[in-house]
Amino acid sequence: MNPSQVNVIGMDLVAAVHKTGPDIATFVVSAIIIIAGAIGVVFSRNPVHAALSLVMTLFGVAVLFIEQQADFLAAVQIIVYAGAIVVLFLFVIMFLGVDRRENIAAEPLHWQRPLALVLMAAALAGVIALGVGSHWATGQQAVAGSTTAGGHSNVYLLGKSVFTTYLYAFEATAALLVIAVVGAVVLARRPSLPSVEPETDARGAAVSGQPGPDGGLHDAAPRGSAAQDASPADVRAGQSLVKEAGR
Amino acid sequence: MSIPGSWYLILAAVLFTIGALGLLVRRNVLVMFMCIELMLNAANLTFVTFARMLHDIGGQAVVFFVLVVAAAEVVVGLGIVVAIFRRRTSATADDLHILKG
Fold first, then answer.
1. Has this prediction a pTM greater than 0.95?
2. Domain encompassing residue A24
3. Distances from the Cα of A112 to the Cαs of A45, A101, A169, B87, in angstroms?
4. Which of A62, A177, A207, B22 is positioned for an S-S bond with A212, CB 3.0–4.6 A?
5. Percentage of chain A surpassing pLDDT 70?
6. Which residues, including other chains, have CB under 8 Å from residue B66's CB and lie 6 or more apart?
7. Nearest-CA residue of chain B relative to A79?
């Protein structure tokens, strides 16, 4: 069936009654890809294989986004998830050198896996029962704007919604991203300065006031390195925190 | 367009369940993070399905924000993993009881 025919007849009726071959084939193939990828993430011994299985699942979800006319989100799904997040995962896996197989069979709590299986089966059954009992989707339609208003494209409508209705949320995400970047830099920075002597602590004010041995070294260091741009007092405080945590 | 929304919702529920199961049974911190991504994707699929069923663009806008939050969460989480690895050379969640009271 072509899209114009769908619009003429009425979407709900057609969606409930008609099932065309290509749509069903797309859904079934995507569902198989999604489930197989998810099982691969959970049960693969090698973290690299798990990350690649995650890519498979993300592609399947993107296909289902396109199937449901969420074109922009499908593109973002591929670019952000498969292009950035999974690459970040792989980078960390290989950076840390944990890409070796682990023994999944070793399980310190022998009752945990059966309990997890039972709990998840119960949760799945409960969710599906709730969905069936409440006719899957109820409520007002098109509260924040229709997905097909005026025959505009999905990108147009989604952009209009994000930049008008959800403008404050959009600006909050900008702040969130900045905070995340700063947090990642702070967390991943290597505390590489040599440990500070106790007597230097005692005359810390004098050291920071005039160029002592530490200060001279600090001034002579090349600029641009994050660890050396930090003031000595900050680094000293961080090191004492780390020492405290180690005890 | 012609697939009923309930199929998508059941698929999303199954995907969420697999992700939650992996989060419960795996001990590798990185794999646990990937399972969280699976659960986020299941929620995203549900949002897009509801957006289609109710003809409401708000569902897709929410998915947009979920993507942003997921990216920020992964960045900070992997930063924490790298910081932990500096001190102890394992990625097992059982070893991370340093905050235990």
1. no
2. 20-103
3. 18, 21, 39, 28
4. A207
5. 65
6. B40, B43, B44, B47
7. B67
Mean pLDDT calculated for residue range A74-92: 91
* Cα separation, A205 vs B5, whole angstroms: 67
Q: pLDDT band at residue A50, thresholds of 50, 70 and 90?
A: very high
Least confident of A152-161, B1-10, B14-23: B1-10
Q: Are A98 and A187 members of one domain? A: no
Same domain, A170 and A241: yes
Q: Residue A132: pLDDT above 70?
A: yes
| Separation in Å, CA of B39 to nearest CA in chain A | 10
Size of interface A-B (CB pairs under 8 A): 259
CA A158, CA A180: separation in Å to the nearest integer?
Answer: 25
pLDDT above 60 (res A15): no
Distance between first and last Cα of chain A: 69
- Domain containing B84 equals 5-95
Kindly report the nearest CA distance between residue B36 and chain A, in angstroms: 11
**Whether A7 contacts chain B with CB within 8 A:** no
Overall number of domains in chain A: 2
